[in-house]
Amino acid sequence: xxxxxxxxxxxxxxxxxxxxxxxxxxxxxxxxxxxxxxxxxxxxxxxxxxxxxxxxxxxxxxxxxxxxxxxxxxxxxxxxxxxxxxxxxxxxxxxxxxxxxxxxxxxxxxxxxxxxxxxxxxxxxxxxxxxxxxx
Length: 135
Hints:
With 135 residues, the protein is mostly helical. The chain is 69% helix and 0% strand.
């Protein structure tokens, strides 16, 4: 089955960057996102291994490299008190994206720790994920 959708140039760029970071072509990447987002039918019970694989994929999704670069650049402007009002709004928008991505990541980490029946901190350590300073 084939579906055609219209994407904004920004979203298309973000998808291409994220796919490249994940080592996939865009078609594969979008397919994985959709597989993880669409609820399985009643007859498609997933094995624990399949659930773990999908959770790890979701945990590894993040914001595009270009957004991180822009975020760090804007932070340096802010730290040097050179940030103009438009850039300040952009910095807040990217910060919100990062917070949202981190919240989603934590949701999937918690789900994976329950699936594997290991404490969250232990799971995060095994994946090389450092807890924030408020943890």
